[in-house]
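SEVERITY: medium
COMPONENT: batch folding queue
REPORTER: lab tech (J.R.)

DESCRIPTION
The queue accepted two submissions in a row. Attaching both inputs and their returned structure tokens so the on-call engineer can compare them side by side.

ATTACHMENT 1
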Amino acid sequence: MTFADRLFRPVPLSILCVTLFAAALAFAQLERADERGVPPIDGSGSYEVSGVKVDVAARNAEAARSGGWREAQRKGWKMLWARVNGKPVENAPGLPDSTLDSISGGIVVEREQISPNRYIATLGVLFDRARAGELLGVKGAMRRSAPMLVIPIQWSGGTPVSFESRTEWQKAWARFRSNNSPIDYVRVSGTGADPVLLNAAQTRRPGRGWWRMLLDQYGAADIVVPEVTLFRQWPGGPVLARFVARHGPDAAVIDQFALTAENGDALPAMLDRGIERIDAAYVRALQEGAFRADKSLVIETPVEEVPIEDVLSQLAVAATSTIMVQAETPDAAALRADEAALRGMAGVTAVQTGSLALGGTSIFRVSFSGPPAAFREALISRGWQVEDAAGGVRIRRGSQPAR
């Protein structure tokens, strides 16, 4: 068979099908935006207190629910005060309901049971950061980490997934209110080029060049990779999850633990608890000083070396003062004597005759390494009489009478 026959022979059908399938899969990954992306919530202006349990009875369901929400605000305020100040809940001061209404930003229903005259629920309370911060004794400022790019990885069925498709792990990170944490998380929505740039394989690449490009693209300075591996016992049964908190381009393990959900319906709540524990692990690492960015991720522009002689000459030029000196020059000999006397002074680098007037007053332009006040003192120490003149000084010998 000739080379031309080999080059133009028909492609086997199996190879053609595999190629078309791979191309279609890549096209679907980029084009099916409706199956990717979860916009993260913005909680930067609120404090959140979750897990507030209430049990209120009233004459009807509406009154019971209203009373439960008001009770949640009271309990949530005390829990927030205790968390911020590091003291027991019993020591928290009480606030009137009118004040709580003004600083409360909303109620998050985590679980509720409503009957004709009773309301049992587990709620979350949002407090306005600016207004509540004044009552808490803080101004909303806290020590925060460098911006951390978050790439959540979910392992299920032996396959890692980041932003290629919507996962429960990505949804959990999207609804996580990061404003309560000192870790500055940079969370992406997973749309556009995110699935290609921030895929699971990228988290295992040690090359720093590509990492630096990604961090610059997303406005971050470091990376955190929270992972979860899901094991389903049987369809509809318990779900076992193993969590791993990784940090940096080398995927260093900060913490790892396991949690269990009773069934698929309890999976989101279990993932939320896992995020809280991962965040707590990152916070501990930050406080202990172990949450340091890799120096290889920082792009530093090399500093051009400058010879010390050039630096000294620039400093000398910057410190040089130009002073106009007026002197009486009755003849050429007096002119040469005054000019030589000025040149012989310490600190004088140049003397130029700006205006020559034999039999009158000549003007010299003197370059002096120092401030004009130091030049004036040097003249006086050499026996000159010095007077202020327009734009400079006027000098004459001590024996000369003033005119």
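ATTACHMENT 2
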Amino acid sequence: MRASLWQNPWRLLLAINVFVIAGVFIHKILLPPYVPYIHLLVDYHFGFIKRALIGAIIALFTAKVPVWLVFALGGVTWLVTIALLVQLFRKVFGLNEKTLPLFVFIAGSPFFLKNFMHTLGHFDIYGCALAIVLLLIPARSILYVALAALFAIVLILIHHIHLLMYVPTIIMIVVVRHYLGHGINRANVAFGLAALLCVGALFLAAQFLGTMPIPEADFVAYLKGRMADPSRTDLLQFSYIWYQPLSKELADTWGRMPHNILGVPVFALLIWLHTPLWRYLANLIRALADETHRRLVIAGIAGVSLAYVVMFAMVFDYSRWISNWAVCMFLILHAVKMLPAKREVRPIPAEDRTTNIFGLIITLIPRVGIVRPF
């Protein structure tokens, strides 16, 4: 019995992941939701500003925002995301004994659902969820490109850093599923370029014109008026981010760089523990039937990774950025599997001893963190 469990532990690892996620959730709800809560308070009351879309939507339904709404909204978004992921995995790979190791390496990765639970209420997960939607729906018409552009606009209005975080992955999904899957013509290329220009213009507006136009004291007073419990002034300590210019963000990031860069070996180790998954992705790319597809996929992965390098230089939440980079790679893996292949690629082997050890280790790691590892 023990030998059998060691040779095929993947159902057990999946169950352990469920308990780990539950533990992360219990820990999370005991912590003050500093940044996520203030994002629910900020809206467009003073005109167009950055990071205000979610708060503006909430303002349509309630004038007072309770703290528990951070966990309720974040929890629902998390559940929707995992439901979308399961549906996507079933569609692309099929969820069975043969593909269970692959599912555990993706869904059980400390980079993915467990870290989204740790960052519950933050905006990262919205990019992931919308990217999964684009992987699930048909991509035949130009309306698919329009929907992707709309998703990108929504993400930038939620937080403009999505231009680097998930918009490049959305672009790659559109290229793989629509342009490579259904052909390139003058009309859809022109529409795609126009959509890119609109998304880029919105980002520039949010980045350089989206600063709060009133004194910070007046802004904080307005936020207190939206709080269900105005005495919780500790939850407003991050109001300065609506006034902080790009130059200050860069200075803060590079000032913390010597200390935060010490986490890079830990990130490298975590990435290495996913070696069976990266090997499978590489095999999928090599198995593509069209050489042009292979080159474009490699270029897309490089482009997505470059966007994260830029983000590393601009904002210091390194654990979140490396986690979301890994999630983007997981999503790209699904997209690559949808392209025509010249041969079938064997999934991650369930009986390999090293793979089992790596699977157990990533299962037991509860999260990666927000700024520094763990």
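NOTES FROM REPORTER
The mean pLDDT is 93.
No errors were logged for either attachment.
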